[in-house]
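Dear support,

I submitted the protein below through the web form. The confirmation email said the job was done, but the results page showed an empty box. After a refresh the structure appeared. I'm attaching both so you can tell me whether what I see now is the final result or a partial one.
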Amino acid sequence: ARYKVYIIDEVHMLSDKAFNALLKTLEEPPEHVKFIFATTEIRKVPVTVLSRCQRFDLRRIAAGELAAYFEKIAAAEGAKVTPGAMAMIARAADGSARDGLSLLDQAIALSHGEIDAGLVRDMLGLADRTQLIDLYDDVLRGKAAEALQRLNSMHQAGADPAIVLQDMLELTHWLTRAKISPD
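What the results page shows now:
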């Protein structure tokens, strides 16, 4: 091969001494060597290293695009997925095709025929939307005892409390946007 490619994943985890050693190679790289650095925390990579690199920032993929992509894959795999279940998987992927494909694969493995919203909700530890809205209502009305009891019953049914809180934050964000801009 004409090139030797070195991929350093999670490059932000390198020590200062490792970055200094790498810097020497980056200043005068051999013609046949290419480096690819991958990181989720670009701020931890020294500016001296960044200034010697081309940078490509990967963006999140919209949930609708992910759902359409996952539908093609599910069809190729012969899996039947309801639109509600597919929307949940796409939303849980949070813009990552790789994470969404892992979730879809897990759902296919767990299913016995059609993958529906209930199966995905249980698999992801999500709360039922009506229970979430009731919990939100309890919190807004200051009914602490009822809210804690409802959250406990949701947890006993398999909902992850951290995900319930995340869903409540998303609901708050959506309601705020709807109030400010009803259209």
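Response: this is the final, complete result; the empty box was a page-load delay. The chain is about 60% helix and 10% strand.
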